[in-house]
Amino acid sequence: MTVGILGGGQLGRMLALAGIPLGLDFVFLDPSPDAPAAHLGRLITAPYDDPEALREFAAAADVITYEFENVPARTADLLAASAPVWPPAAALTVAQDRLQEKRLFTRLEIATAPFEPVDSPAGTRAAAERLAGACVLKTRKHGYDGKGQARIAEPAAAAAAFAALGGEPCILETAIAFSRELSVIAARGRDGDTVVYPLVENRHTEGILRRSVAPAPGTDAVFGQALECVHDILRELDYVGVLAVELFEVDGALMANEMAPRVHNSGHWTIEGAETSQFENHLRAVVGLPLGPIDPRGVSVMLNLIGSPPDVDAVAAVPGAHIHLYGKAPRPGRKVGHVTVRADDESGLQAALSRLEGVIPEG
Questions:
Q1: Three-state DSSP state, 261
Q2: 99-111 pLDDT, tens digit each
């Protein structure tokens, strides 16, 4: 069976690495001839809306998925006439627009930050006055890794913030004083069977994920809330594949921040740290195989490599450390790989992390 993947970046690369042992073949559509996944299957180099390339891509694939959520939803709709596309295009439509995303959470009675849509400097100031207190202004589309956002301390700063984001339609949210960010990652098969990985604690710097801890400590009391949240979204969208939902923990309760209809950075630990990785389970789901068990193998920490890679020899010398380089040229702020550290217990994990101090670049 050939799986078509829209996008040939590091997530497409890791999907292919997980799928090759299952006997799957891959075809990628990506605008870049240097896409990291290029050597793991056939690469069609073209824009995502190129009609001829889409016909060629669809003809080569038995089932189609995508590795990032900014693929045009219309592309997914068009391809669905030729082959099954999972997750469904409806999930792309929601995830590409923060306003639709928030309205989905609200409709499903999933707690989220108070919000208002805004499309002008005056409207942004008026919304900031109604929401009161500190707010976060976000472009409705094309935001990732902290991009397309501006914090507003008081309404007087709202108009300038709107202009700084390019005058695009935005969403204004109340800034949430959360104790930590968590994420829940689930996989749902074609038959509705669903597995949910343990909650992960995420730590960011300048809007970029730097570290994920799995399983997140002290989450027994809130895991049920995360389960209800992710199950509601999966059912509502008739979802197939891996879904990630980023959550804020606030006074012992969870609030949904955003969702990603794809394999997710905070799930990279599952390659070494779980019985079945998020990448394998995504492929199992979209091709119709039974889902694999998701039990954690001890405890894990995933460290993103930002800007430039570390000394591979130094990382390899640390027991339990596993390095994944994406084949991307170094650049400030760019994710060029990750390291997962896995151990049987917390003391072994901390010993390994101590040995990695100074080895992993700060980015």
A1: coil
A2: 999 999 999 999 9
